[in-house]
Specification:
The protein is globular, with a radius of gyration of 26 Å. The protein has a three-stranded antiparallel sheet with strand order 2-1-3. The C terminus is likely disordered. Helix 4 packs parallel to helix 14. Helices cover 66% and strands 4% of the residues. The protein contains 20 helices and three strands. Among the domains are: 220 residues, Na+/H+ antiporter like fold (Up-down Bundle), CATH 1.20.1530; 50 residues, no CATH class. By secondary structure, it is mainly alpha-helical. Strand 1 and strand 2 form a beta hairpin.
């Protein structure tokens, strides 16, 4: 009988108190996010406070199991936020501002670490403690950065391109430093060159392999598919490419494959998510695609996200002169030209960013993104004790722990750094350090 009970999950109707708590939690998250976005373009701050109020640091209305689920779903939202940032990538702007992005990234990494060493004598710490404090503030919260850029409408501007590119560079370097500090704290004997080289090498490898795969595999394959579809407009291949959900499936597989491979290889899956979005954006704008009218398809047939891969930025508007030249006697040509705006709108609607907005955006904006900021808002607590290993603890906001600052003979130093919010604010020139 016991085996039967544990072999399935029994269904229990949730109580009214649970329903009210969880429904109010989700509703207030979205209301506060909307208000803060309209006032200060930073709705995530309100979501953080709601997480504190409903979670363990506050009223403890949400149970531990619910908080764990929120953390897990929130990280899915973070991956999709970074993926959207990749889809918004403008490659021409990146090429034009690459040196500026590198300079911003170097500043964002070097300034906190340099400042921590400058303040080393003030708080009487060791060099390794100063380095750990600087490393806690140099990594950028990608989810926070992309959320603020989207809320303020800067994601497609030059400023947004520079900041997003610099954030990705900071993320790679920050990952290496966090792993170095963690290994030093947990077991200094296991620390070796692999700890530093592996995530860095894998990240550079992805940055090289993914563009090469796009150029040497995706582009020739698309050209071959275009020729095969053009030669057989009624074939199964053309019908498959015209299926409504084909692009959604392909984009999701690309995202999942890169994120999974990067994780097992030892680097950030967020960097892989950005590369997945950027590669799809490149495919949309740089690779030629067939028009449905050119392969003998009816205009009433469903538009294919695969066949129309051009992005909104690369799709031009209809030529005004061609519309003005239509005369009353050119009925056939006029009919053909009247369908051009429709075809072009279908082409825009089936790009990578449009597929994202069609299938992912609502869930991310209303559920997954708020869950990330209330349940996965990281706070780095650096606790250093004499005669003990230094350790780095990543504490969820639901499980916020405030360590008392005791400096008795320099034996204990506790630093609480609100890492994600401070680094997103860094995008607007704010630097803050909290020494408790």
């Amino acid at each position: 009988m016991t085996a039967e009970v544990t072999s399935f999950l029994p269904y229990h109707e949730p109580g009214i108190v649970t329903i009210l708590i969880q429904s109010s939690f989700i509703l207030i998250l979205n209301v506060v996010n909307t208000l803060f976005d309209k006032l200060i373009f930073c709705g995530l701050l309100g979501q953080v406070f709601i997480g504190v109020a409903w979670g363990t640091p506050g009223a403890k209305w949400l149970g531990q199991e619910v908080e764990n689920v929120i953390v897990q779903l929130g990280y899915l939202g973070l991956i999709l936020l970074v993926y959207q940032g990749g889809l918004d990538t403008n490659f021409r702007s990146i090429k034009a501002n690459f040196s500026l992005s590198v300079a911003v990234a170097i500043t964002g990494i070097g300034f906190p670490i340099a400042l921590s060493f400058v303040l080393q004598s003030v708080v009487d710490t060791t060099p390794i403690q100063a380095f750990a404090a600087g490393a806690a503030l140099c990594s950028t919260s990608l989810g926070t950065t992309f959320t603020i850029l989207n809320a303020s409408g800067l994601s497609t501007t030059r400023l947004g391109t520079v900041l997003s590119s610099a954030a990705m560079m900071d993320d790679v370097v920050g990952l290496v430093m966090v792993q170095v500090i963690s290994n030093i704290g947990e077991n200094s004997e296991s620390f070796g060159a692999v700890t530093v080289v592996r995530p860095l090498a894998v990240s550079f490898g992805l940055a090289i392999v993914v563009p090469l795969a796009c150029r040497l595999v995706a582009q020739p394959l698309t050209t071959w598919l275009n020729g095969a579809r053009k030669s057989s407009p009624n074939g199964a291949l053309n019908k498959l490419c015209q299926a409504t959900h084909t692009a959604f499936i392909i984009h999701t597989l690309v995202l999942a494959a890169l994120a999974t491979g990067a994780t097992y290889a030892g680097t950030s899956n967020l960097f892989a998510a950005y590369l997945a979005g950027a590669s799809i954006s490149w495919w949309d704008s740089e690779v030629p695609h067939l028009d449905s009218a050119k392969v003998g398809c009816s205009h009433d047939s469903p538009s294919s996200p695969v066949e129309h891969g051009t992005s909104a930025g690369s799709t031009g508007s209809p030529n005004p002169s061609s519309r003005d030249e239509v005369g009353p006697s050119m009925e056939g040509e006029a009919t053909a030209r009247e369908t051009t705006p429709k075809e072009q709108s279908e082409s825009i609607a089936s790009s990578g960013i449009s597929v994202y907005h069609r299938y992912y955006a609502i869930a991310v904006q209303r559920i997954l993104q708020p869950f990330f900021f209330v349940g996965h808002f990281p706070i780095l607590s650096l606790s250093f004790k004499a005669k003990q290993n230094q350790r780095l603890r990543l504490v969820s906001l639901f499980q916020l722990q405030i360590c008392s600052a005791v400096q008795s003979s320099g034996e204990v130093l506790s630093i609480q750094s609100l890492c994600s919010s401070l680094n997103s604010s860094r995008a607007y020139g704010w630097y803050a350090w909290i020494f408790l």
